[in-house]
Design brief:
Elements: H1 2-64
Length: about 60
């Protein structure tokens, strides 16, 4: 009986270690993806701000004509 419990415990520990490795890999990949998303969001906001500036400038020129 005790031998079966020890085998079961070892089996569970082995699976938990495997899952821990996989989760660590997923966390690293997620950090990389979050960095890419953050960079893309900054670029989008920069382009959005440039568009607002250009449209404001054009509307000023149209108003003054």
């Amino acid at each position: 009986m005790n031998k079966k419990i020890d085998e079961y415990r070892d089996n569970v520990i082995t699976h938990l270690e495997y899952l821990r490795e996989k989760i660590d890999k997923v966390e690293l990949h997620l950090d990389k993806l979050n960095g890419r998303v953050r960079t893309n969001e900054r670029n989008i906001y920069w382009i959005f701000g440039l568009g607002i500036g250009v449209s404001s400038l054009l509307s000023t020129f149209i108003y003054l004509k």
